Amino acid sequence: MSASTPVTPLPAPWLSLVVPVFNEQENVEPLARRVHNALRDIADPYELLFVDDGSSDETPARVVRLGEADPRVRLVRLSRNFGHQAALMAGLEHARGQAAISLDGDLQHPPELLPELIARWRDGFHVVQAIRRAPVDDRAAKRISSGWFYSLLSRVARIRVTPGAADFRLLSREALDAFLACRERCRFNRGLVQWIGFDYCEVPYDAAARHAGRTKYSYAAMLRLAGDAIFSFSSWPLRLAGLAGAFLSVAAMGYLVWVLYAAVAGLAITGWTSLAATMLLLGGTQLLVLWILGEYVGRLYEEVKQRPIYIVRSGVDRARREHIADASPAASNRPSDPFSAPAPPRTAPSRPPAPPHSE
To answer: Whole-structure pTM over 0.85, yes or no?
Structure first.
């Protein structure tokens, strides 16, 4: 289906399911089938929104075929690979439902859990987070590092992210609007969901192995995500640098007192090895502090450029853009989208003239 093909108007969905995908051609069809089966008892309309994050395989073509057979399936294509966090943001911004559920496209997040997430939302919770009981990754290093990371993040940041919490969650429209108001470029969505507040609950589940393909999260990508999490939600690294400087300053003053005492007492001052080691320690500490400062300055540089978090290549018509822009009162506080046409000026509805006043 080409971009110029007219889109048949559909009733506004009650629920939006957002699935970021990147080279998942073997997974999109089984995922759509299992989602439809899981929601077959839900009478309210819903949409299944795939966000193609610059795939180089047949992923977008297969999603288009799914959409031709079922108009509930929609596709948003990004102009290139912006990363999972940005693709998830794109999908949530284009979600039209009263609630949005995000899940991965590799079927490790079981669609059969969707009715339980919806039930907890109907109970009054605005954020329903699915929690993985046990990791399916058999790499011991990843399991251990993940546990250490969440433990460290909970101690140094002003948020608490439960270990096992991935991007499988439901957000009500109120919580979603608050989440979308956070416009930072270096995103850690799991932390932002905790930061916005609202009534929160958790639903445990057993994660399955990836249905097909291979994981897109390398160790380098996980390290970048961990850096975004810590530097975005905590100033603890700056405090650590200050404490290290204070400790070394006190140690240097103590060493200076000893040197002066040795000079007055006539003691021989030897030990060029210790002097070189001290200089190396101070130089390494300075470089470490500069690295910490550079991480914060680099993120400030990314923010002040105000580049869009993502760029849509196709899949969003103007009517849908205007619907998204006017979806909620909170949307009026968001920065304008530079890629959408300006909205027409709003005029107050005309009122019939008042009847003449009778004496």
So the answer is: no
